[in-house]
Amino acid sequence: MVDFTKKNARDLEAERLALIDEADGIARLREGKNARDLNDQEQARFDELTSDGGLIDQKAEEVDVQHRIEKNRDAQRAAKLGAYSGKVGGPYTGDQRRHRVVEPNNGGIDPQLARLAGGYFTAIAAAAVGDYDKADAARGSLVQWGASEFATMTEGTPSAGGYIVPTPIASEIERRRDEVGVTSKVARTFSMTSESLTIPAESGRPTTYIVGEGNSITASDAALQTHMLTVKKRASFLRSSPEFLADAAGDAGAWIVDAMAYSAAEQMDSELVNGDGTSTYGGITGLVGGIGSAAVKDADSGETSLGLLDVEDWTGTIALMPPKYLDDAAWVMPRATWNNSCLPLMANSGGAGFASLMAGAPGTAVNWFGYPVHFTEQMPTAAVSTFVAFLVSKRHGVYLGDRGDMRVAVTDLEQFQNDLVSFKVTHRYDLLLPEPGNADDAGSYVGLKLAAS
């Protein structure tokens, strides 16, 4: 099975900028107070990026070519579709379909993309059971709805190869993953164009002095350190009968999109929160396992359950975080913490109205002591000596290295004898918590823990 998933010009431009950032990061290793010579691996990577005809130049050429392709494709599509205004979301142009804001509907599933998913899966299922008239009709509907790709390995019978679900469906799965998961909301995302990425980070700032007229200025340098992101592949896999897909294609397509998105979100959030550095979590050390002891706020003795936490526990947690990390900080907590600690504290404070309490409803943006709250059910179950919330700096707390878009593939060959259609989602990324603190100083995130007794 061959993956023909394509990237648009915007994605390619992001990759080009990421390559430039990587080259700048390597170059800065030779500058400043802690300047040093590049090692052989760093020098080779720098040359690979910046030489004439190197990776940056190659990516710029890809961007230019893809811009021309998209311009021609959109012109052809506009001429073909004309003023189509069907019932699946309106007369979008090609560019609007790629960049429009997706409004949640029907439990968060975009009806346009859900219908496209159902259409693609209808065509796949019909071909799998030999109903090629139905498959061709489904493909015709997809063209009318604005779909531009329906790729197989060969030009003949559709069932002769693997099917690649086009970019809109993969994009919807990725959007839903980020919508229901917490990681992308609190992470600083880096687009990766190779398996690893070196990120320079500030470890010391230059000093500003008061200088008299004619006096020399004391020299100082900004100290830098580096962090490394190395991607690993995550994959999910499910099977279904073609009869199920053909008979309930619209709903089945929407359900598959949602199921894959939730699975990806749960995995990513579990790595962020519970990662212990083992292969189970892709080598990632998460919030619970990586936090420095100076960044932990232990609840007072006797506060062994959520309902016993008081205001001082929460303000004490905030006070642990160094001020330079507070500007973009956000809470990460399970809904149990919000429902059993935060809401009762608001209700008992005497100043909270009904509207404030309703801010805890699912899907509604909420704040706690001035910082946004993001919910995840991957946190440990509240018990003695367990973390119930973290306050995380988005810029410095979590790095998410993303190696391209999700890829979604479909085939009826993997379980051909059993007459099943297989769906696969793969995504490559890495997570890193670069400044977790230590026994002496809190880092870029802090945590609140229930008392031991």
From TrEMBL:
InterPro entries: Phage_capsid, Phage_capsid-like_C
Gene3D superfamilies: hypothetical protein PF0899 domain, Major capsid protein gp5
Record-annotated Phage capsid-like C-terminal domain positions: 161-431
Subcellular location: Virion
Superkingdom of origin organism: Bacteria
Protein name per the record: Phage capsid family protein
